[in-house]
Amino acid sequence: MRDVGDYSDYWNAHLFYLSKRKCIIFINKSSLYSFVILDFIKKDIDPFPKFFIENFLRQLKSDNILTLKYKEFVENVYQNIVLMPTDNDKKIIGSMNDCIYQIGVYADMNSGIEYLDSNFIGQRLNDTPRGSINYFFPFEAMNEIIKNHT
Fold this sequence. Notes:
Helix content: 40-55%
Radius of gyration: 15 Å
Order of helices and strands: EEEHHHHH
Shape: globular
Largest sheet: 3 strands, antiparallel
Number of strands: 3
Distance between the termini: 21 Å
Strand order of the largest sheet: 1-2-3
Structural class: alpha+beta
């Protein structure tokens, strides 16, 4: 995915099933910041830009990095987000697969997906240092990206 605004900020998304329920993970290409939507249905994602923005803002708030300035930035930049074919970036695919594995572990530890909170899962994923971004935390990297653009 790519926003069509002035900022060339790329996101990848992956639809996966967990406990026979549809889930989707979004990962920012440069920061590996992610957010997850557990157990959604097709009508939930229409219109897509609104779906993306609401869930992204919810995760930023959950990670304690949302400010009014950031909220305005996200709402402006991502209002025209569009779906694009994948670029098959191995770093992102590997990170995504690792995140999906971690989500599965959390589901197993909590007796299933119905006892999981998407924002809590996102916090855990964003609070894990990633080797592919020099062991920075994704929430710190995203905070820097937004700070530099506002």
